[in-house]
Amino acid sequence: MDPDIEVERIFRQENSEEDEEEKMKRPPSSYGSMKSDASVVMDEEEKMEEADQVSFAFPFPVSLPASTAHEGTGLQMIRSASPETLCTTTTQQTKPPGAVVIDTRSSDLEDFSEHDDDEEDADEVLIANSPEPPEPVEPEDTMQDENGQPGRLHPEQDLPHIFKSIQSVLTELTSDDLLKFKVSFYQWEPKMSLPQVMEGDLLDFVDRILEILGQDRSLLHTISTLENIGKKPEADELRNNCKRALIRYRLKQYLIEKHQIIREGVVRAGRQNLLDNIYVEPHVTTRGYGGVDPSHEFGRSPMSPSPLQVPTADTFVGLNNLFRLQTDDGKPVRTVVTTGIPGIGLTVSVGRVSLDWAELRANRDLQFVIKLSFRSFWLLRKKELPLSQKTSIVELIQYHHPECKDMKHLEEEDCKFLIIMDSFDCYQASLDWQNAPVINDNYTQAHPDVLIVNIIRGTVLRGARVWILGRRAAVSQIPSQYIDVVTELQGFSDEKVEEFLTIRFCNAELTRKIVAHYKHLPSLRILARHPLVCWMVATVFERCYRYRDYGVHPPRLTPFHGSILIFQTNRKMEYYYGLPENKLKWTTDEKNQLNKIGKMALKMLERNTGVFFEEDVKEFGLKVTDVTVFSGLCAELPTAASGSKRTYCFLHFSFQEFMAALYVFTMFRSESKNVLDTALLHKPKLFTPKDQTKSAVGLVQCALARTLASPPGYYDMFLRFLCGMLNPDCHDSLMRGCLYTHNAPKVAGLDDVQRLLEQTIQNAEENRVENLKECLREMTQKDE
Prior knowledge:
45% of the residues lie in helices and 6% in strands. The chain is mostly helical. The strands form three sheets. A six-stranded mixed beta sheet has the order 3-8-4-7-6-5. Helix 16 (448-457) links the parallel strand 6 (417-421) and strand 7 (464-469). The longest helix is centred in the first third of the chain and has 22 residues, at 3-24.
């Protein structure tokens, strides 16, 4: 071999070894500016350890850390020797003016050097003068997140504070204690390998655990490891320094555990859905009109004294932006009330806001989100707290959230936090807004009634934002001077209905079939804008399409309304009466109450009105609260002016027609009475006069006479629901065990009813034929 070539090869080999040795050196840390005063001492200790290497052999093999996926924080600290180095937020904040950040993930530096044909120019080394970065520049309060919201975390809950706190505590450990700490940390942390724990200095270690584990897990694991090696004072010091972050973490975990999985209907093991996977945000408006959809298949909605209105799109606001609203004088809102008709999704909305805060998707500037449900208040008051016993608001918070014990932050002026008080209608005690004593601090003990009044007044938890949710009939008792903004959930638009059905199923063909199937019925298409009905559509049709040849005929409307009635009644017994799921048996009182509501609905139909008042409720022997709040079938409409009578209506005008038909059918089946007998205009020759009105055909004949004698649309849906109730699948299957006993016989004479409907269709006017055909289909079509 040529000697010159051999010398050149040896020279290149030496240079490559020097390059490899240079790469092994630790680059400046992203948090280099955060070195403590003890850094010099650490450097001296490292030199002493190097001098003693002969007498002390390291007990673990040392190797370069393997590449890891940074799943903890999504934040990669800059190390130029690493092929995974990213340009982090901290780097952008700390770089000097005019400096250029070089992405070292690629060895291709053509963008930073001029192209030259000369190979010697390509071999030149790019020298970068990179001084130690200054302190990170704290972003201003105007920093916004992806939702256009202020996303500024409190400094004590942000990453730099966690980094400094962990580094400061670990710096106080001796070299032996630090070794014990790393060994124990590695043994109880499966996400980190031994080289990742043992390699590098202390800054490298803190950098690495924050990258891989995230700030919450790093903090918790550091505290527990310090306690495991007998360093309890250091663990307590770290716990006190990061107490605000730890409380936030505990509250986040509570909200995630509570709201991450949505429980729909009867909870079944293995059939739970993640809220993120199926959630579609309903419209929320700052100008509510009651939340009742005025659309109707026959184009009528007889609401008096004024017709129902629909809010415009310019009044819509996002759920996560509720506390970005301002009062008329430009001040931030403190108390926001959100209402909605039964089943519209108030509880799900609470879960969405809570989950978005817990997972840092929105409202990061809120240090804490604390949930104090009115239902919890009521259970505490009713079962566990005698009337004579008193408690403070701080004790109540600690009772429901033990992790908030000894939390003094709520007293601070700059502490911005949210109190969520949902289910206002569950608190069944009356509140004395005028005479309740005033409480001026968070530690004064008082009765829960008094605490609730003072929370809403703003005399306790002064720094809190308060979000109150409940049905309008319940929250309307709150004096207006204590409320900054009233919002209302409106339900879905047609586009959001399709979005809900689309994201719910992975099978695109099944989604297409369900969307096309529910659109066959105009009334069901209108009703599906209600989130509860939309969920029923998805659940029922998904199950039905498992059977062969399903979907040939349009769906029937009556079973959906019957399912709403059963669902809301069961929910009332479980939610307001506290009954377990396996004991939801309808009592005689429940059946009588529904019967009276149906009787009231029939009278309203005869008067051609869709609204009722308190005196109407009392006329039928009902309590206003039972009908307008607990039943889940009615809603309160906003009054036009103060002092006006409180106005109520059913969830939808078609539901009023269903309840009227249900009452007529129940009286016929249970008591053999035909309440429509007075409306019989003529008797068919086909039947004998004796007891003809007490038969099924006589009942339908009376309903037909009333329908055909009225303008189109007045009784057409009522007739359709009555015929639907005659279907055995409805009255003998769906309603059995609820309104009717298990041993009740099926309704007889349906063949005669079918012949009557067919004859009527042949002789009816053209504008009546379509609805009569639907009546016949509702009665005769079997469940597929």
